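Before surveying the methods themselves, let us examine one representative protein, pairing a chain with its fold in token form.
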Amino acid sequence: MSGSELSSPERLCCDHCLQETGRASAIIVEINGEQKLFCCKGCLGVYELIHNNALDAFYSKRCDWQPGPPATEVKLQASAFNDTVTVIGNEHRLDLLLSGIRCASCVWLIEKLLMKLDGVLSARVNYATHKATITWSAAKISLDTILNTIRSIGYLPHPCRGIDSNEVLAQEKQELLLRFGTAGFFSMQLMLFTTALYAGFFEGIEERYRLVFQLISWAMATPVLFYSGYPFLSNAFRSLRRRTLNMDVLVALGSLSAYLYSIAMIAYGGDIFFDTASMIITFILLGRLLEAGSRLKAGNTIAKLAELQPHEALLISESGETTMVPLETVQTGDMIEIIPGDRIPLDGTVMDGEAEVNESMLTGESNPVLKREGSNVFAGSFSINGRLKINVTGNASNTLLSRIIHTVEEAQSRKAPIQGIADKTAAYFIPATTLLALTTFLYWKLASGLTVTALMNAISVLVIACPCALGLATPLAILVGTTAAGKKGILIKGGDIFETISNITTVVLDKTGTITTGKPSITDLYEYGLTTSFIQHVASLEAASEHPTGRAIVAAWPGKLLTTEQFRAIPGRGVSGIIKGIHWRAGSRAFMDQEGIVLQPNHKSSASTLEAQGKTVVMVACGNKLAGMIGLIDDLRDGALPLIAGLRKKGFSLKILTGDNRGVAAYIAAKCGITDVQAELGPLEKAAVIRSLKQNGECVMMVGDGINDAPALTEADIGVTLGQASGIALESASVAILNNDLRLINTLTESSSHCFSIIRQNLVWAFSYNLIALPLAVSGLLHPIVSALLMVISSLVVVSNSLRLRTI
């Protein structure tokens, strides 16, 4: 869009920012044979950058653009963003808050330009919150380059804090409240004079008083339309200018038609309808105000979580002195102290002390958890009755709390597939409604010969058809549903998950650490005389293992551990290493076969006996001979049987996949009443089983621990992880249960069904409302004010129905 198209020769518009400028002060350049005009060098520089990157489509896409040059002279320091960078393997991720975004095309431009940079892996900008999430390879591109690229096109990045998006919602609600308050005040005064005019119509009124009341009504309606209704009018104007239609066009056409017609009737002595123009704006603002309040209320939950993280910490120096320091200065590996009643500022491991800690804000579990040496603690929880010394394991942007907040925000921005129905319908609905309103006007004009009747019926069609309820039907339900689930400790990563869970046919359960406690204890010990310190060697070998059986063996040896070299863990099989020059191995019977360790008949018999008792057997080899075996028991969790009963009641097909041996797997499956069980599977083999189920038409939910089961969780249609969610769990799983209560999985399936049911109810209502109301409006049975009221009631029905999800 060129400046010459927008203004007179005396006052031209900048080809980039649309700011009016005089020809004498403008910068005029020729680009590709076409003359371009810019208000400043900053706009010229941004235009050239966009043009040189073949992103000129930005200028045809943008809308609702407020004129003004970019803020390109502001200097940025990458160090100000360092504490908000998350490192995942070789990838770096950063959340930013961007100022200067004016319309959806700005989002398009930022994403496209960043993705052209070598090393940027992904770039997503949320138009609703103005938040950007950028992932890049630090080996190829620096953060400084990314920030300056964003700045160079006129958008200023700011470090993203937890409550920024909520502040945007609060400002939006405040502005709506001011506009609605103004509309409500003047509309109430207007109705007094309108009532007098209606009374005069039936009982007679002197012409001079009638004219005065009409002029006062005009004065009252003007601020309602042009101040309170300004967002509708401006958005409608921009929509028409770019030759597209949105629902603001319907509102603007309806209110402006009544307003302009009423002005004409003052001159010609006819009836006026300023009340219609004003009440349309007032009722629609009321609906949007209530909608904004609902979104803000849901967003407050996230803001309150963000506020749980303190801004300072008690840092313990090497000399033992304790100093209060800003949280940003605390690094991984530092020691901090927590005193009774204080919130824990960062994730870490307890090195000294003992205290009961309240973690309800993360897990939904109200009972305090005892923390002692070796326990993990999480930012946002607080110590009730003891002092703790904590070794910090991550910065402020990498805590479990911050990951939860990020995941919930991401979930609320993701669309459910069913929302596509509403989106596609809305694209055709508005042009069709405009055409229907025009047809209604022409029909009633020809049928009755009365312009007033034709106009009022056409306005009724425009107003009642506003698809606000259709637009709210899905996103508001997702917003409320994910927030309500989060309060119970169920972290849902996207609105599409509700729909997917409602289609689940098969539930696959991991055994160890999922339906069992994951904390086995030694029950049997067999030694075959190859060493005098068998358990010491096995404990030393397992010391570097993260597997629950390995930790149980280490816990059983209270003495000194031997040095293990060349340690290697084989997922789902076992571990190996060199101790005092001898190759030791510990693992399953399949692992021994794989390593070429020959088992004697008595060895196999002993192992089979232990497995028949539901015990896990760890075979230990010294060199190429079996040195002994250890039997451990890992029994069912308390909530396992209620979980399975609940899943079976819902008609799901149940399956157990485990890396444990067949005997143990069969024992646990029998206790659960599950006949379909596969054992001795590695992580990739579990994923292959799930892939096969999906190929056979099953919709699969996988429940695992989120670490060894990461491939299977990713492969499943829905992956659910238990316990304090680690980074890999949040990345791999669709849902994270933030405590170990298996019964919450039943709550998840019930809540998802309820939420998806609410979404369907909302959509059925939104479509049904328009199918019923539009014919009534076309037939002339609805006054425009009644149409506006019904439209608001329709939106309120959707809002109220969605808010029922707060109690799931």
Remarks:
- The two ends are 50 Å apart (CA to CA).
- Residues 164-203 form the longest helix (40 residues).
- The longest strand covers residues 91-99.
